[in-house]
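ENTRY TYPE: paired fold submission
RECORD: A
CONTENT: sequence, then structure tokens
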Amino acid sequence: MSIPYSGTIRRSGGVVSAIGKQLRAVNLKAAKRITVKFDPFSDNVKHTRNFLHYISSQKINFTNPNCSLKTVVVCDRSEPTIDVLIAPSVAESTKFKNVTLKSGNLTCLEILQLFNKHISSLAPAEQVTTTVQTKLVKKKSKKK
């Protein structure tokens, strides 16, 4: 007598693939300035530093080149925080201008999930404009 199979077909990719999935969803168009403040001698700063590394990559910076990333290193045993100043064009439609994430007890994956939930979701959708050209217009543009 056999037991029917009741599990998943394949295993999940793990934390690394989940972080990669969240990084692909990051959009900085709603942010004007990101300030990451941490004490390097604190016990729970590793995930905040990893978030800083991921968010400072060139691929993510291309989503909004006008967004400035500032790192503040303090030595006062304070909790690591991530402050995001919302862009004025987006802040008009929302009720807040600043978002603060206290990342002391969060993992890097949780920080990225919160960032996508609260910041990337505010980014304005890109407007795709497509123009339909007729064969006659294409021929005229080739002859010029």
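RECORD: B
CONTENT: sequence, then structure tokens
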Amino acid sequence: MNEKEELTPLEQDWRTRSLNAPSPVQQFGPCGRIMKNSAMVMQIQDPASQRLTWYKPPLAVLVIKKVRDSTVLSPFVQLVEWLIQEKHMVVWVESAVLDDPLLIQDKKFQNIKDKCVTFKDGRDDLTDRIDFIICLGGDGTLLYASLLFQQSVPPVMAFHLGSLGFLTPFQFQNFQDQVTNVLEGHAALTLRSRLRCIIVRKNYKDHKNDSDRNDLAECDSSGVNSINNSNALPSTNILVLNEVVIDRGPSPYLSNIDLFLDGRHITSVQGDGLIVSSPSGSTAYALAAGASMVHPSVPAIMITPICPHSLSFRPIVVPAGVELKISISPDSRNTSWVSFDGRNRQELLHGDSLRVTTSIYPVPSICSQDQISDWFDSLAECLHWNVRKRQKCLDELSDLTGSGSEDTLDELDSVNQI
């Protein structure tokens, strides 16, 4: 199917009921796309063989830095100066970054400040303007990049300059060589799937039914418009990289939430809330709530209860292609609140519902090594996964293992009697 071709209503309906994840868009921004190779079968490529290629040289790069962190200022200045003077690229930065007092005092940056192109979050649309994204900071910078691009996302290269850094595999020490390798097309990719979240309001259901169906099939840009319009109501159509969280908010009562899968009622959640996460989000909030860790290339959606009032409510994993519907139970004592990657928090009233499915627009995260090595390195370094002291070997009993068991026991009994 052509990437620009719109889906028919029949195709839209089929996609949300398929047990397979939707085929991701393989073009990232104006310049980047997945390199096609012989490993592709029926246009489903082995995730381990996904590598970045540029079909025209990238010129515009967006640099995202961690806010309110003075330790990131020096790397930020070095990177921007090098990209402009050595690579002759057009560097985009958020206008709020240039207002940092410490950055204003930096004489080196003042020489290149006027060469940077600025944008304002919530006002300027960056669609098809950015070829390449570089993040300096922690995992929050990658989440912010996902928020800025609510459809096709340019390739993202994330440097670890934050606290945890589970999603930021690159070290900054030799950034020149690493960025050059990526710009030359020598890089593996991890396609981090995102979740398309749509709130259907009871009061606006009749007015928005048709547009919401189109939103779910991702054939329009209403999600982008609602996010970038600062005067609009909170967005009801958002792509999230980690998770969408439904909780009881300030109410002292249990959440009472009905969960549907492809139109079928699965269960009712009674507890503090519910986490619906992508594979990337399985190592975030869901991990703290007891979910399994899932590799980001696995096509799946995780459903994790938050402090359920039940001893048997375990987290589950469902196929990526299903459509989840979450609504407030009619007999619930209170409303619920929903947040998307920790942002855009808003209230779900009785009669409102939240629909979640896998988006066709992943975040193409550039690997430092490869998909497997990067993920297990992050598990070991950031989460200390399965770290414990090694059990000592039984050298002192090695002679016993080589002799007969009966003789050994007899000898031990005689020793004990003496």
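NOTES ON RECORD B: The chain has a mean pLDDT of 84. The chain is about 25% helix and 25% strand.
STATUS: closed
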